[in-house]
Amino acid sequence: MENKIVAYGTLTDRQKAEAAELFLEGFGHLMTFSRDEASQKNLFIEIFDPALFFCYLEEDHVLGLMGLGNNKKRPINFKKEICRKYFGTIKGTLISKQMNAIFQRTAVSSERELYIDTLVTDPGVRKKGIGTALIHKACSFGDYDSVVVEVFSDNQNAIGFYEKNGFVTVKENKASLMSFLGSGYPIVMARKLAEA
Questions:
Q1: What is the CATH number of domain 3-144?
Q2: Phi/psi at 68 (nearest 5 deg)?
């Protein structure tokens, strides 16, 4: 079976739609700004950074998706004009402002840290090494000292997955307002990269 990891910008239109569907399957519950799934999908197809999102392809189908960022740039930008295109002037402007307050905030403080912004795999092929392959891609992306990710304390599967891939907990944000949304509190995990 042919599989490879490619930049989002190289995907066909069908594959970009698959990537957006996969993202919404994993993170759609956090996208409470609209119930219109088609508009959400079309929005994400357009706002994923083509150079900072990577897709795991198997037989030309997207089975894994990862977005990477650093202390200067994150891979999802809810651009006002694109949000307005799908949700109208007022609602689109509000979505852009509110979502970018989350998705464009600085995630890591050092220019030597790479941030895994999102990582999701197709539920039908989990535990087949796709997530680990994407982690390897992150660890070889650019010139960084460590890779950082944030997970919720209630997501024990994600915590176990990252621990299995060499990540350790470096910070727990138990006082976070996110804990009131029912997903637990944010945990920051990091993996040091070997020096060359």
A1: 3.40.630.30
A2: -115, 150
